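Handoff note, outgoing to incoming analyst
You'll be picking up this chain. Sequence as last confirmed:
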Amino acid sequence: MRLILVRHGETEWNREGRFQGQSPVGLSEKGIRQARETAKALVAMKPTAIYSSPLTRAMMTANEIGKAVSLEVTPLEGIKEVHLGEMEGITGREMRDRFSQFYATWRRDPSQAVFPAGESMRQLQERAWNAIIGLERAHPNGAVVAVSHNFAIRTILCRFMGLPLSRFHRLRVDLASVGVLQTNGSNRQMLAMNERCHLPEEVR
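Most recent structure output, in case you need it:
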């Protein structure tokens, strides 16, 4: 299977620097343009299936891809973003002020982080990785698009590349970026990561 991991396009909360988690936030005008440019770029990859986090911003992105390649989008719970609990909707500054102990753990070792009244990073990685294994089994051949989120994608990449989750901060996944992973179950290769050359400068 060739797995094409796509991060959703921009939202207004992205612009404001707010943690979105599982909040139902849609794409901004720029985010819609990003999704459409990403969709055009993926046509050449000839995807055979599209899956998406059920969260609004991911589904909006996936639907643009689906229209471009004439495929229906299948929601996939396992690849939705981490549940942030009490941190849903706050800014980075608010997080550092209100949850200083959590922030210290987050910077020191994200693998030990548990969001207040939300999920842990380990829980996120486990469910996201299980979803990817399910896609491997369901689509051993062909190219599969999975539209997901920043934290979810980074935990998948850590597992895929054999990096401990404590190295989570070393990875970067920008808005509307594309990563391409090749896998046959036993042999896994990273073909591209955080690719954004398909985006015109004005919507990066």
